[in-house]
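Final report, Chapter 2: Outcomes

The project's central promise was a pipeline that accepts a single protein chain and returns its three-dimensional structure in a standardized token representation, suitable for archiving and comparison. That pipeline is now operational. To close this chapter, we reproduce one record exactly as it appears in the project archive, with the input sequence first and the structure output second.
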Amino acid sequence: MPIPHEVPLGPRIFVNRLPEFARLADVFPAESRPRAAIGLCTGLPGVGKTALVRRYVERIRSAGGFRGGDLHVDFGATGDGSSVSVSDALASCLAALGVSREVLSGSVAERSNLLRSLTAAHPVLIVLDDVTDAAQVTPFVPRSPDSAVLVTSSGPLNELVMDGAERISVAPLSGTDATHLVAQLCGSRAAAEPVACADLVVRCAGLPVALKVAAAHLLSRPGLRIAELVERIGDESAGLLPFTARGTEKVAAVFAVTYGALPDSAACLYRALGVFPAAEVTAELAGVLVGSSLAAASADVDALVESGLLTEDAAGRLSLHPLVRRHAVHAALQADPEERCRAALRRAVDFLLVRAAFADRAVLGRGRFRVASHRDLLDGYPDPFGGRKGPALAWLDGERATLRSEEHTSELQSHH
């Protein structure tokens, strides 16, 4: 029986990712381990997780690692929107190890036990792509401590991390690395238009899938200047249409699968966040946008973070990648009446106006002369700062950019 090497080859052109490779080396050290290691590569859709993993497996093969070979399962949605079941995925792995499908037992537990038995003496690397739930991973964890599982997921899969998986975060490419990727893909044309090339990198916000689609446009049309392509991509009203290749909206498709799997309330919040112009928001403001309680909004935020479409930093601030935002805006235009979007913006403007007025009162005191009185504006609202200057200043500092975007939104709506 030949040793299986199922993981496909990585992309021919691949840039940097040295920190991620170093992190993977830490997760899968050459020396013996007490149990099979689990690595989890996470990042937003289209950021290059699968490419990273495939190139890493090539390195492992070249170094003679995992003598029992490598197995591969892709849990990503197929053309009809379905995805492979854990049971069928286990059957595929067992078939690669020489087990006839005719003698396979029907239960997931029995197939999982057989996989562990067959790999106990032969270290294998099992790669699981596009995992959405930790439960998809557990049946594949080998018994041999010299084996390993490498997972890619758009979500953080915190349950898997709590069970011992090591997370490797895959971020969009830096400006330098993204520029290098475009140069590798487009050759002398990138060197001929360095300023436009830099603008293209900014427009694609370091997302490899977008950079590659843009490069494909340039390669298929030798007369198209990079500056012209940048101008097309810069047209926000076009959404993600400039990233269409062979009739398929490549970048939009990457996000659409994840968006389509969201609960209705989380999808509604996703669209509202796209429409709201601020780069970052809090969970509280997110709830205001959709008119829900903080508890309900927090649940929807969790769903969006788990999906990989929304990023939450250590301070609890929420943001959308620029291209994800364009997808969210397009989704809002498709699904939400204009008045619903305007109502969301009005709620956000009112909330920020009241909160800013309370902060102003706490910092400068009630006796300060003001052109407009706070009395009517704040009547009926509780003071979130309790009149304390410190918390008010902290809020103003954290929301400075949001307040500027709110001012712009208010001007656009003529809402005062």
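Archive annotation: The chain has a mean pLDDT of 90.
This record, like all others produced under the grant, will remain available to the consortium after the project formally closes.
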